[in-house]
Structure formats: C-alpha cells, structure tokens
Amino acid sequence: MPAPGRSHGRSDKRQRIIEAAVEVFAEKGFFGARVSEIAEAAGVADGTIYLYFKSKDDILISVFEEKMTWIVRRLQEILSPIEGAEAKLRRYVVEHLQLVLEQPKLIQVLTVELRQSARFVKQHSPKGFAKYLAVIGHILDEGQRTGVFLTSLDTGLFRRVIFGAIDEISLEWVLGGPPADPHAAAHQVADFILRGLCVRGHPADVPQIDNRET
Amino acid sequence: MPAPGRSHGRSDKRQRIIEAAVEVFAEKGFFGARVSEIAEAAGVADGTIYLYFKSKDDILISVFEEKMTWIVRRLQEILSPIEGAEAKLRRYVVEHLQLVLEQPKLIQVLTVELRQSARFVKQHSPKGFAKYLAVIGHILDEGQRTGVFLTSLDTGLFRRVIFGAIDEISLEWVLGGPPADPHAAAHQVADFILRGLCVRGHPADVPQIDNRET
Amino acid sequence: MPAPGRSHGRSDKRQRIIEAAVEVFAEKGFFGARVSEIAEAAGVADGTIYLYFKSKDDILISVFEEKMTWIVRRLQEILSPIEGAEAKLRRYVVEHLQLVLEQPKLIQVLTVELRQSARFVKQHSPKGFAKYLAVIGHILDEGQRTGVFLTSLDTGLFRRVIFGAIDEISLEWVLGGPPADPHAAAHQVADFILRGLCVRGHPADVPQIDNRET
Amino acid sequence: MPAPGRSHGRSDKRQRIIEAAVEVFAEKGFFGARVSEIAEAAGVADGTIYLYFKSKDDILISVFEEKMTWIVRRLQEILSPIEGAEAKLRRYVVEHLQLVLEQPKLIQVLTVELRQSARFVKQHSPKGFAKYLAVIGHILDEGQRTGVFLTSLDTGLFRRVIFGAIDEISLEWVLGGPPADPHAAAHQVADFILRGLCVRGHPADVPQIDNRET
DNA sequence: GATGAATGAGTCTTCATTCAT
DNA sequence: GATGAATGAAGACTCATTCAT
Prior knowledge:
mainly alpha; Tetracycline Repressor, domain 2; homotetramer; DNA-binding; 0% strand
C-alpha cells in the first residue's frame, strides 16, 4: 500500500509521465513527439516534466531503463522456475510475444526507438538492453552446459540472432497487427529456434518430422 | 547507356546527393542530419537539393528505393544461378553479411533508419523492402516446393524471422564493428537457420552433430 | 532595541533574504540570479521569499533602499562631527572607498545593478540614491557657503561628477581587486577633487605643488 | 560608392541589425530586449539575425566592439592635431559630451549595459573599453611628460577617475535629459578636471579665481 | 540549371510566482 | 507563518524550404 502525501504524489507524477511518453512516442516517434503532448497526455503542466526529467532525451532514456528493467524482471520470474533450457527458451519466445500482444505501444517504442536511437542509447542506456540480452544468453549457456544445445555455437552471436528474430516479429505485429493465431506462430518460431540450437535428438517435444509426415 | 551532356550532369548530381545522404544519415541519423550538411558533403548548394528531391523526407525515401533496388538486384544476380534452396539460403546469408562489411554506412542507414522511419517508410516506400523480403520468400518457397524445407512453416512469418536475425547481426557489426572472423560467423548463422528450416536429413552439408562429436 | 518574539523572527528572515540577495546578485547579476538561489542562500523555502517581498524586482529595490539608507546613515554619522567642508569631503572619499574594501559584494550590487537597472530603479527606488547624492551635495553647499569651494560650480552637476569618479574607482576595485595601497589611492583621489573644487589657496592641506617640488 | 550585390547586402544587413540593437537595447535594456524586436526594428526576419551573430550575447558584444572602435577613432582624429595636453583634455571632455547629445541611445547602451555586463564584457570584449581608457591615458601621459600635469598622479587611477566623472554625467544626460546649457556644463567639468590635474600656474586658460572674483 | 541568403514557423526549456498542505 | 511541488507563459534559437539573382 503506497504511502500517501508527497512521496506518493512524486512517484505518481513521474510514472504518469513515463506512461504518457510511451503512448506519445509510440504514436509519433521520439522526434515527432512534442514535450507538451507528453505533458498533456500525463495531465501535468509542461514545466512539471522538467521536475522529473532533465530533458526530452532523458525521458526516452528513462522509459528504456524503467521498462526494460520491468520486462527483464518479469521474464526472469517466469523463466526461473522452469526446468530445462529447451522449455525455458520456448517459454521465453512465447512470453515475449505475449508481451507484444499485451503492450504493443511499449514494445513499439522499445523496438523502433531503441534502434533509431541506437548510437545514442548505446551510450546512455546500455544496461537495460544488455540485461535483456543476458536473459537469452543465460538460457543458451544453460543449454550448452546441460548438453542440450550445440556447444559449437557462439552464444554471444546467437543471443543476438534469437533476439533479432523475435524483435522483427514483434515489430511486424506491432505495426501490422498480430496474426490470426499468435500462439501458433509463437510456437512455430520457438520450434524453429530450437531445431537450430539443439543437438540431434532434441528437442524431444519438437518432432523432427519430414515433410511426408506433414 | 546513359545519355550524355546535361542529363548525365543531372544524374551525376542526383547520385552525389544520394551518396552524401548515406554518409550523413549514417553519421547523424535522419533527424540529426541537416540538409545543408548533405549539400556540403555532395558539393552542391543547399537549394540544389530541391531540384532533385521534393523534401528531406524524399531524400531518405529515394535512398531506400535506390539502394534497396540495387541490393535486391545484386542478390538476385548472385543467387539465381545457384542450384538448391539450401545453398541459396546459405549464400544469401553470406552475401548480405558481406555487404555489411563492404558498405557499413549504407547498411546502417537501411537498418537503423528503416526501422525508425518504419511507419513513415511503410507508407512511402514499401516496394524496396517488400522486394527484399521477397528474395528470402522465394528461397523459402523453392525449398518447400522441392521438399527440402519443412512445408509446415509459414513462409510469410519465416522470411521475417530470417530477415530479423540477419538484420540484428548487421546492426551489431555496423555499430560495434565486425567480429574477428565474419566468414565463420556467417556460416554459423546459416547453419542455424538451415537446421531450423530443413526436413530431417537436410541439410546434407550441415551435419546434425551431437555435442560429443564436437 | 528590536522587538522580541515573532516580529523578531520575521525581521530575521527578511534580513537573511536581503543579505542572501546581495551575495547572489553580486555573483550572478540581477537577471542571472534565480529566486530559488536566493532562497537557498537564505536558508528558506522559495515561497517564503514572497511572504516578505512582492517580487524579484522588489527584492532588488529593497536591497537598494535598505543598504543605501544604511550607508547614508553611516556616512552621516562619520561626517557630521567633522569640521570644515574640505575635511568632510576628504573623509567622504576615504570612507566610501573603505566601504568598498569592507563590503565589496554590496558595493558591486549597488554599483553594477543600480546602473543596469537605472531606468527601473529611477522609477521605483529614487529615494536611496537621492539621499546618497545629497550627502555629497551638502558638503558642496557647506563648502560654498563657507567660501572654501568655488561658488561658480553647479553643485547639482558636481555632486554627480564626484560620485561618478568615486563610483568608477569602486567598480574597478570591486571587479579587479583593490590596489596595493588603497589608502594612498583614496587620498590621491581626494586631493584631486579638492584641487578641482577649492578656491585658490585651498585646500590648506593639499599643497598646490608644482612638479619641481615633487 | 558602395559595391553592389552580395557583399553590400551582407554588410548592410549586419549594420542594420547593429543599429536596431542599439535602439532596442537603449529602450528596453539587454535583458528586456527580445531578439524578435531587434529583428523587426532592423527589418529582417528573426532567423536572419543568426546569419550575422552567434547569439543575443554576440549582438551586444558586437555593438560594443564596433561602436567603441568608432568612438575611439573619432576621438583620436579630433584630438591628435590638438597641441597641448590641457587643450586635448578639455576637448576630449567636450567631444564626449557632444557625443552624448548626438547619440544618446548609443551612449546609453554603452554606459548602462557596459557596466551591467561588466563581468561578462570584461571577459568577452575588453579591447574596446581598454582602447577608450587609453585615449585618456595618453593625454595624461603627455601632460606629465610635458610638465603640465602633476607627475605624482597615478595615471592608471586617474584615467578611470576622469572616465567615471564623464560617464556619470553622460548617464545623467541620457536618462534625465541634457541641461539647458550643455556646453557650459562641459567646460565647467573640464575646468574642474584640469584644476585637479595641473601643476600650479596651469592651466593658463583656467583662471584660479577666488570667490570674490566670481 | 545552380546558388545561398533569407525566411519564419516551430519547440524545448527556464523560472518567477502561486497555493494546497 | 512556512513549504516546495506545480504551473504555464515566454523566448532564444534552429533549420527545412524558397526564390531572386
């Protein structure tokens, strides 16, 4: 239960600005967004923005930091109890895409603006993104340690390959709308990745059918 | 054969502006780039830009159209004589990443700004990107037709999955520099994708080793 | 004797704000100074300022009124027992420059900001400045009455001439630091003014030497 | 006859902005002046200002440099043919005050804003002011060399004393309007200064009358 | 066709002031 | 009285675009 009074008012306003920024950045893009639009969407005065953020850039950076941290924690909470790298990876794919369905605007901002501001964000906000990649990296490491994933794979490379694949699908869904059966699509993608990663015989639950069986 | 005289001078200037825009957009991003910087880099006056392009937006769109067309043609010329969807796909991966090494600034613009301007480009310049995706799509179709790739895969989905994976690696190389052995990395990625796509037993040249064999 | 209790607390805060304003105005200038800086320097909240002053302008005006009144009273107390216009004028010069050494920040504010806000201050705060000029004016009047100063001099003009000379030296000392021997400088200036003002034969204590005697 | 075409247009615009800035700074003060007001007064667009000046500060600095240079040259041209330090000094006083009558707004800006921006101008634009003081300094040096002025005087000190006296009178005339007979006032001031500076017996043309003679 | 000086609309940011607590 | 979070009006500056030469 949040404490009343100032400290609550303060966090409350800051959070409202963050959420408003996600909306406006998603709709107009970072450069197309006006600080006054964010203020209006947050229900605060223009100047109030600057009580909580140093600049417009700082809003974007803060959105990254805050939301990436939140996503990473959410993923970690879901994934940590799961046994087995294969199951973890499958669940990761499903959960990320679930997130896209739940919060398309947030994902749009993170996906579109993260890249567009790549140089700038790489300088100012590398932590959030690095932690996200680490989520994938840990699964890959575990899979290699337990002999499920091919040890010949460069995990530094493949965590980006996997991220890129998921990220592109996220973008597609966010801009073009999700497909009729997102769940099936998510599992197709997970199957694909697992076939690519796993030692022969794995994954047990992804029958390496030949086309005749289809 | 290009017409001589004036019209050649004309294309020459237009082309110089396009190349200059690639440089400047790569260095500063679309929004950070000034039209006057592009003009200076192209060795023309500011106003001259507007003899060849309607607006700053139009420069970006034209860069896309022109360069995407060029890339697609280049890929098609390389891929069309190749026999077999597996070999074609492998070569596609290698060639795209080769392009990243050869023209990092161009790839940076296409990769970073394409996404950033996603909505805007989706509206104004969908052709180039669609044609690029079609290059991957055709390979997938051929693979399914010839029974090499799993027919259960939604090619509309997987051409984006593959594009996303390659695109992310491109971004990494462009912003962080290429790895020590880009050729090996390219083949690792190609192996991964082919394992994901192929019917059991394929690809013939990608031994589905288990970790003991490694 | 100051009133005890609340009213003392009240004047205390008001006075602290005045002193803080002198510091901040001296350091940043009137326009460069932030009300919040003055509040911080005074150890009060921003809003508290407005319990004692109508506006930022009002702070400056109050500084003038208060400090000018104080300076005028101090000068009058020192000068009134002194016999003779010449001695009075000399002492005035010495005491003003002494003040510069003692309270450079105050003098800086009065000297720099008074002029910069000249129009504005002329409208809002003429009393303090007029009283200061009157100090010089009274000395001039006395000197003319007692036949020591030339009666041909327009005292309205010369009180400004004298003020300007002293003011400029004050500014120099305040911004560039005082000279090695400020006392000697003060007397040189006093000698100069007295030679300019006095009837031939005066001042008795300023021998009208020719250069050979030097 | 001014050269036609670009270079003329350019200097012309820059000069118009300078003159407009003098008007607006005189009327509103530096901080009260809006860049758009200067632009309007100069008959140019707001943005045009920034083709000729880096910032609003730069306009003020440029006004100083340019006008101080002009004034110093004007004074030097008038003073250099004059024989004798006494006559030179008298003429300097008269000419400076003549300038006040001719161009009160310019003098107001130089007098009021110079001081207000003292710290800032001392950093950015010391040359113009130093040259102005040097005009007075050279006269004092010459007077001491030729045995007309007291050699005991510190010329570094007295050039400021003299400047301060004249500057204060200038301010008075500029803000309160000139007196009924400015010429007489100028000579009264010159007489005063010369009596203060000169060896006994000098100045020949300033009879050291006693009050009875008046 | 080519130029580049000029334009002026557009926006981030500051900060004096207010007022609910 | 005291606080300081909130306000919002105001302005310096940028830069894509135009057009007279």
